[in-house]
Amino acid sequence: MSVITLRDVSIRYGEGSGSVLAVDSFNLEVEENEFLCLLGPSGCGKSTVLKAIAGLIGIQAGETMYGPGATRSTDRFVVWQEPTLMPWRTILRNVTYPLELAGLDKQTARTSARRQLDLLGIGEFSDKYPRQLSGGMRQRAGIARALVADPNVLLMDEPFAALDAQTRRLLQEQLLELWNGLEKTVVFVTHSVEEAILLGDRIAVMTARPGMLKEIIDVPFRRPRSPDIRHTAEYQQLEKRIWQLLHSEAEKADAEVEGQS
Amino acid sequence: MRRYLRFAAPVVAALALWQLAATLEIIDPGFFPPPTRVAAEIAELTATGEIPEQMGITLGRVLAAFFIGIVPGVLLGLLMGWVGWIRAVFDPIITVVYPIPRIAILPLFLVIFGIGHAPVIAITALIAFFPAALTTYSGVAGLDKNLPLMARNAGASRIDILRTIAFPSSLPVMLAGLRLALGVALTGLVAAEFVASQEGLGARIWRFWQLYRLPEMWAYIVVVALIGIVLQFGLLELQRRLLSWEEEVDLLR
Q: Which CATH superfamily is domain A4-260 in?
């Protein structure tokens, strides 16, 4: 059984004539322990689908189903695009937050948070406040907070989109390395074709708004992957194919914007 | 310490200039007695017990207005920011009531409460209530909307969100609301004491004006100013302690 199943899911924002159909009859099955990238043109509703999977927004039609390991909402833990840290808490206490809510005692929570921060290479910044850290370090803290909660499913909402190219590359590699050692399902939203190929087992390409599933693509590269796969012919073919899929969608999105103005 | 010095230097300079101008009669010392004269007046009125007594009355009224007007104002502001239906109920009411100058209600309070502490406290509380509520409300409305979502996803209940997200994230705007409201309260209280009270610092300022004894009048004005300054500083210090995680709050901003 799939960990996450979305069947004919439609999501509408707003009410009445001003409402917008963000996601339309979306179907998706996420398999256990796979790394699935959700790729689509901007505004296609990728993040909306992710929030629906997380159970943070309601859906107007269809259904979401969860496998045995993902039924509780905390089993599907989100890593946010903006790290969404609490500015009044130190990095350490941001990371212990989910454990605190789960009722873990302080000492145990701190120990595992420290270990997680060390794994992500920001252990020495435990006692700093978020504003004192760079964007990359803040996002590492966001990832640490998710990993420390040890959910079966990680929902990552363009977590590296706001970072500079170097930091992004670094964090992608770090994420892969961590993920290889864990048994976790990841749904990773991105608008970067390169990122999707580099990270994903499968790529679910979405249409322009209203978002529907356009195609699911298997990524044939073995793990562990190095960024060097980009120089292979296989990669370039795959990239081209995805770009073509996206291109037609981007044009549709553009046409719609122009039609409105 | 350096901060205090940097703060005090221009103030001292301005006072010195005033002193000089009044002594040389560039400004009329009848209207603007030199600071040393005012200081002497304050010393004398303090020695007779007059200033402490009046100060106690006014401070007591501020304190009462704080609990009757400002605290409920801040609470309403928080609730309006946090809870949709409370916002829906009170936003229109406050929008309609806000433009009425609160001091205009003073005669009504005099009718209801008679002369004494009650009408003065009531009007001060009313005056301070609105800025407390509105500052807090608008501050809460501007907070990060993703934090509650993050918390919910991390397993927080509604109570958890209130305790771990809404309250701490609202603390800065609560304190800002408090500070603003206390300033407004003091102004309103002095105005109310002018006309509706025989006691209190405002009443003394008014009386010495009527007697045309300007040095005494100035003495009481300075005392009111000092109260305002101490209150603001106290709150800024509180803010600095509670919000050490924020960008360095400049104490003497």
A: P-loop containing nucleotide triphosphate hydrolases (3.40.50.300)
